[in-house]
């Protein structure tokens, strides 16, 4: 593995101290004007705290979840930022130290205590730190290895662990559920330690409509999947969890993940209504965290795009190093497009479409599972040492023209995953929202771009009351 010694990066200050909560606060408009068609709430989830006492987390994924809400009304924008008060968060806050295992941390207690925790689902802390799902009456903070947590949509008060009326205690529920824009139905998954991939089809409020299970060959890492017309598609990369090390508490989960490229990537095509597997195949090895979108094209083939890494080890190490502020393991991903035969699962074509280092591909929520033109990404600025820094630009790839349009935010400014917000007044117009950390000013801001004219200046920039650490995923909830 190539290693490179680096200095502490400018963005490291955004992670060096636990984030500060703030209540409903009017937000200052720094430039531009809030579009009249931008009305609703932005929610983002990520790690707000990466230290407890003198101890630091072992991996970026270990941090305690904190939710940012920005509310756009006719009176302007207001913001709220709150930690998700899980049982683990409250217990560790009282103790002043880490008490649980996590993605990059072993359980600190004796092995018998670890075993007891495995039985009652307390060995690993549910950090509630990955994404959010907005239902009609509550917001879910998602963490894929366990149950969601429910929060008040307005105040972000933590209401407790959420079982949706059907989840068992500790049952995994994906941090990347997919909502069909036409029916409102929600599709989710969960992988358990019995080598089983659980599939869930829910109504728009999370009530279970159908479930099924697929036996896996071992215990892989399945972070997300694709909705493509009448199908769900899974690309299961050759990553295996070494379960004995987890059982004996000799390794944290992140250290027990093995990259086995000789196995190739497993492709599974599932009927979205019955949740029945239709086809299975294998293809070249790669790893992905995130897909942009998928659809069924008129010729009967499935088309999807994703941020592809050539291996798992480098991205895992990169993410482990982020909390230290020093990247020693470069990690590279690019936007690829795949076509496959849904009848056999055979990959017909697999090629890069954006060769700039990028991640967090997203589309308009109205395009999920449907034919689409634009995929939006976070990417590195030109001239930046790719793979060794956080992202400082946004991109829009147009499949109709093959063109990449870029918004370069300038030196020492860092973006988060872009969120698409449809305009409430003009059907074909939308806005791209990203939380920006300006390291020179040591300030977090919210920038809004015209999604169709990304290379133009932002339509507005809004100051946040305090630094919000780089977050993972979010959603837009339009005003009713």
What is the structure about, briefly put?
InterPro entries: Carotenoid_Oase. The chain has 480 residues and is mostly beta strands.
Instruction: Indicate the CATH class.
Output: Mainly Beta
Structural class: mainly beta
Low-confidence stretches: 1-6
Write down the Rg: 21 Å
Helix proportion range: under 10%
Q: Give me the CATH fold name.
A: Methylamine Dehydrogenase, Chain H
Alpha-carbon distance between the two ends = 51 Å
**Shape call:** globular
Number of discrete helical segments: 4
Q: Kindly report the average pLDDT value.
A: 96
Provide the β-strand percentage band.
35-45%
Number of domains: 1
What summary fits the major beta sheet?
A: 6 strands, antiparallel
Q: Supply the CATH superfamily name.
A: YVTN repeat-like/Quinoprotein amine dehydrogenase
Number of strand elements: 35
Q: From the coordinates shown, what is the CATH architecture?
A: 7 Propeller
Structure description:
- Residues 1-26 are annotated as: Disordered.
- It is a single chain.
- It is globular, with a radius of gyration of 21 Å.
- The chain has one domain (10-478): 7 Propeller (Methylamine Dehydrogenase, Chain H).
- It has helices at 87-95, 111-120, 243-248, 313-321, and strands at residues 22-26, 29-32, 40-49, 51-52, 55-56, 64-73, 76-83, 131-134, 139-142, 149-151, 158-161, 178-179, 186-192, 196-202, 208-215, 226-228, 231-236, 239-241, 257-259, 265-271, 277-283, 287-296, 302-309, 333-340, 347-354, 358-362, 374-379, 393-398, 403-408, 413-414, 419-422, 430-438, 443-450, 460-463, 473-478.
- Residues 1-6 have low confidence and may be disordered.
- With 480 residues, the chain is mainly β.
């Amino acid at each position: 593995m190539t290693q490179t010694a680096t200095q502490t990066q400018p963005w490291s200050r955004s992670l060096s101290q636990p984030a500060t909560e703030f209540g409903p606060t009017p937000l200052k408009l720094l430039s531009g004007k809030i579009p009249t068609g931008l009305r609703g709430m932005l929610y983002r989830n990520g790690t707000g705290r990466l230290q407890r006492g003198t101890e630091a987390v072992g991996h970026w994924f270990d941090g305690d979840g904190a939710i940012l809400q920005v509310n756009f009304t006719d009176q302007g924008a207001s913001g709220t930022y709150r930690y998700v008060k899980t049982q683990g968060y409250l217990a560790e806050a009282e103790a002043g130290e880490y008490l649980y295992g996590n993605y990059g941390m072993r359980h600190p207690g004796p092995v018998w205590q670890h075993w007891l925790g495995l039985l009652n689902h307390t060995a690993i802390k549910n950090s509630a730190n990955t994404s959010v799902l907005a239902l009609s009456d509550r917001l879910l903070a998602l963490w894929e290895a366990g149950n969601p947590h429910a929060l008040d949509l307005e105040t972000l008060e933590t209401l407790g662990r959420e079982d949706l009326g059907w989840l068992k205690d500790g049952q995994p529920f994906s941090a990347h559920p997919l909502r069909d824009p036409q029916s409102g139905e929600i599709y989710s998954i969960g992988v358990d330690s019995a080598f089983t991939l659980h599939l869930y089809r829910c109504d728009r409020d999370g009530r279970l409509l159908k479930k099924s299970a697929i036996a896996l060959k071992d215990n892989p890492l399945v972070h997300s999947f694709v909705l493509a017309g009448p199908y769900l598609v899974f690309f299961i990369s050759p990553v295996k969890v070494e379960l004995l090390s987890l059982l004996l508490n000799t390794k944290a989960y992140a250290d027990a993940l093995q990259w086995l490229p000789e196995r190739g990537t497993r492709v599974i095509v599932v009927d979205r209504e019955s949740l029945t597997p239709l086809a299975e195949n294998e293809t070249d090895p790669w790893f992905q965290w995130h897909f942009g979108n998928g659809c069924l094209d008129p010729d009967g083939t499935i088309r999807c795009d994703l941020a592809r890494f050539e291996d798992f080890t480098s991205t895992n190490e990169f993410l482990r190093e982020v909390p230290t502020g020093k990247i020693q393991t470069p990690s590279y991903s690019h936007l690829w497009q795949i076509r496959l035969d849904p009848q056999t699962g055979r990959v017909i074509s697999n090629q890069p479409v954006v060769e700039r280092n990028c991640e967090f591909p997203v589309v308009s929520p109205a395009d999920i599972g449907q034919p689409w033109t634009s995929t939006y990404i976070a990417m590195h600025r030109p001239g930046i040492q790719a793979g060794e820094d956080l992202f400082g630009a946004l991109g829009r790839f147009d499949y109709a023209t093959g063109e990449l349009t870029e918004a370069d935010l300038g030196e020492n400014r860092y973006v988060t995953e872009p969120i698409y917000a449809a305009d409430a007044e003009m059907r074909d117009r939308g806005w791209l929202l990203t939380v920006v950390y300006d390291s020179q000013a040591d300030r977090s801001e919210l920038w809004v771009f015209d999604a169709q004219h990304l290379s133009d200046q932002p339509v507005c920039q809004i100051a946040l009351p305090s630094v919000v650490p780089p977050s993972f995923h979010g959603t837009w909830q339009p005003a009713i």
